[in-house]
């Protein structure tokens, strides 16, 4: 006989199917499924009701159904654009092949397809930018945090600067970053776009701080006992940092990294909107400028997608944290 | 024979916000190789301070410590410490915790396989071979303390320093670990300095019991030699006249000569409390 073992979260459904529900399982079912679905349903209802009463200069505010339709049309547009691109490449291949037959010594010139980026292209751009900005910030913040945590001199020297720059909004950095990137990054054959660099640096500058602060606090709070162990073993400075300090600080560091990634995503959308840099922010801004009757619905789709991606990024960090951090109690939800 | 470890005129003054505080004054002690010495005294008298000075974790402000003709100036694995709260690295398994120490001490003299064998050997010595791949969170307090001892022993120290190693354990576990410790001491002949609050433990384990006076300016009050033959058996000793006399002497020192008058927090008797509530 085969016994199936169910994951614990599926237990209520199995019990429901077999008609044997305990009080506790009812509770679990309510908590996992019924309450969230109810909450969502009530939200959609209120949204629909409110939307009907709001008239904007671009027509009525979109309700859930309009937004659903717009999401569909965004997908269609994306597919249409991809089909066009495929057709373009096919034509080019054919042309080159036929010309090479007549003229074998000819050097073929391949052209890139230059259609307007679709909604999904913009999502891709934003994701790449946010990850690059976040990685750059982490690469600066973690080592710096360790130094500040280890040396009270470094702490005293940097603390005023950190306190000063930490609360600065991305919008204030943006013009400066744009100008500096334009001035410094001058090449004829750019590897990456200037707009990408501007967005990335702005994101890094803004999301640096939580990782920096949390890492330094994590490093400072290494227990005295473990430091004594390290002293008795005569670990050298490098081993001390690698074997004692870093693992001790890891839980705090991850808390900081999670906060940083959340900030990075928020900052990026704002920066893209303001600087007209490619990405989801630009999509929102373009739709706003475009001002057709569908614009609000399309912006609403973007809002939901932005929220969803933010949520998924956070989950990703959580999974990483769960996998890497030894102190499971430090991992909240 | 010259002593292995010698503390001469050790004094310790701490700078505190309220001025200097003299914790220790004129501590003189000689310990021979292979000896088991306990430090006993009331809480706050300076036992940990003495131990930390020997370990090199604290630097004495007066006098000094000489181990095997070398002055102690910094901590080192030849003076391994077993800390009161085990101090294992929580992200490493028992094996890895011991391995960290072994690699650090023997990386030049032992091969990879020898290192692994030595780690396992030391975990076996404290009867922890069965749980060597568990993390500190997954084992009991007594087991953690065993791993802490294995880590210290694995460094092959000249002196093993233990700061209330069994303080946080229940009586049964404590008795187990005391027996293990006696076994190991008999087997390896390690020199041990152990801080304890437990008079029975001190008498059972020690060759000499060093009794400290109350601070400030604490120093060694009396030293009692425990002339009981080894191996010692806790049950047989319970009414052995020498054991009882030693125990008596330590208790006398602690509760008559060095009686600590600590103002106890005022507590109402249950009756008085009940009366007050009714009123
Ligand atoms: N870093 C320090 N600065 C100031 N005073 C200290 C410091 N360390 C210890 N003391 C003081 O020195 C005295 C001895 O402390 P110590 O920790 O050695 O006592 P102890 O005998 O180990 O006590 P216990 O049995 O409670 O562990 C105490 O009065 C303590 O307040
Ligand atoms: Mg102490």
Walk me through what this model shows.
The complex is a heterodimer of chains A (333) and B (279). Chain A has helices at 11-18, 23-53, 64-102, 119-150, 152-165, 170-184, 194-220, 224-232, 237-275, 280-290, 295-324, and strands at residues 55-56, 59-60. Chain A is mostly helical and 333 residues long. Chain A has a two-stranded antiparallel sheet with strand order 1-2. In chain B, helix 2 runs parallel beside helix 4 and helix 3 packs across helix 4 (141-154). Chain B is globular, with a radius of gyration of 21 Å. Magnesium ion binds at residues 47-48, 163 of chain B. Chain B: Keywords: ATP-binding, Cell membrane, Membrane, Nucleotide-binding, Transport. Chain B: This is Nitrate transporter ATPase NasD. Chain B: Belongs to the ABC transporter superfamily. Chain B: It is found in: Cell membrane.
CATH superfamily of the domain at 120-325 in chain A: MetI-like
Percent of residues in helices of chain B comes to 25-40%
What would you say the CATH architecture of the domain at 120-325 in chain A is?
Orthogonal Bundle
- Which structural class do you get from the secondary structure elements of chain A? mainly alpha
Domain ABC transmembrane type-1 (chain A): 123-317
InterPro entries (chain A): MetI-like, MetI-like_sf
Subcellular location (chain A): Cell membrane
Keywords (chain A): Cell membrane, Membrane, Transmembrane, Transmembrane helix, Transport
